[in-house]
Design a protein that fits this description.
114 residues, alpha/beta, two-stranded antiparallel sheet, 41% helix
């Protein structure tokens, strides 16, 4: 069973995505800052990372760079309202781009492809 980490400063979004993932059988946790995400990432093993680009204490690009320092054992799904960032996030190492607002169906499609 895959384990997910959600990194987003919007608590409501984290909560809704967390509930959806649990309903799909994906255990998960969420954090709201880059600082918390780095600690969680080092302490635990996640196969799936949902990463927002705009966080209160930094950019999701900073987290993408941080993840590069570890073995590539996870799929990174970047969440952003800015579709213009799609190409850049893939070039920076993300596996998927999920534009906001997103649907349950789109999340399920990405997870099914992993």
């Amino acid at each position: 069973m895959k384990n997910a980490l959600i990194i987003d400063d919007e608590v409501d979004l984290c909560s809704l995505l967390s509930i959806q993932l649990k309903s799909m059988g994906v255990p998960n946790e969420y954090v709201n800052t880059i600082r918390e995400a780095k600690v969680k990432f080092q302490e635990n093993k996640y196969e799936i990372i949902f990463l927002d680009l705009n966080l209160t204490d930094g950019s999701g690009f900073e987290m993408l760079d941080f993840i590069k320092g570890y073995p590539k054992n996870q799929k990174v799904i970047v969440i952003s309202a800015f579709d213009s960032e799609r190409k850049k996030v893939i070039e920076q190492g993300a596996d998927f781009f999920l534009p906001k607002p997103f649907t349950k169906k789109k999340v399920a499609e990405i997870l099914d492809s992993i």
